[in-house]
Write a structure and sequence with these properties.
CATH architecture: Alpha-Beta Complex
Order of helices and strands: HHEEEHEHEHEEHHEHEH
Shape: globular
Number of domains: 1
CATH class: Alpha Beta
Radius of gyration: 23 Å
Largest sheet: 7 strands, mixed
CATH topology: 2-enoyl-CoA Hydratase, Chain A, domain 1
Number of strands: 9
Distance between the termini: 61 Å
Amino acid sequence: MQRNCGEYRPPEDLPEKTETEAQPDESAVTVETGSVRPQDARHLIHCLTVIGQVEGHFELPSENKTTKYEHIIPALVAIEQDRSIEGLLIILNTVGGDVEAGLAIAELIAGMKTPTVSLVVGGGHSIGVPLSVSAMRSYIVPSASMTVHPVRMNGTVLGVPQSLTYIDRIQERIIRFVTRRSRITAEDFRRLMTNTEELATDVGSVLSGQQAVDLGLIDRIGTLSDAIEGLYELIETLPPRYPEPKKGNNIG
């Protein structure tokens, strides 16, 4: 019987999806979130990238390379729940961005039981500093740099004392987080933020990879292979996130 284009086809006549078609499109996931999960490895780790500018409550122009926090936050929640993911590698090359969005991501990473390692390549500037120290262990390549500066505000700012107090409180939140998650002291971090001798049109400091390690901001100099080996070490030495429940005797 010949079928017309608009004729109803019962379910049994529909072609079955192949195994490849039924699986989620891995490339689409990678493009959307910048995340990759290698399958054939010593341990199954998830690679998460923080690149460009961290986008917060306001959408940036389309020509800007951004990391959207509404993509990163649910990805972190899924990673923490997924028993098959043994570790998280965070690769950073960011110019900074929205302070509250960056701190939100950093706090989530810091609160994970999943073993986490960060690797700064290129740059970990501004709010990238809290993001880089949020992991259990942090690395930076020798050629990378980090910029530490006071909080900046764009747009209209009221010229009243309350505005300065608000900015100062935000800076204190950043200082507390960074000093809690690294070996740098609050005094040294404030000194770097208020330095007037390095940046021509701004206040702050630019640190090379080795300087960041020497000051205690980053744990160690390393490459990609070093960061992966460090993550493997954490996976193999830390207790499991979700230990298997003990099987009790069934009564009855």
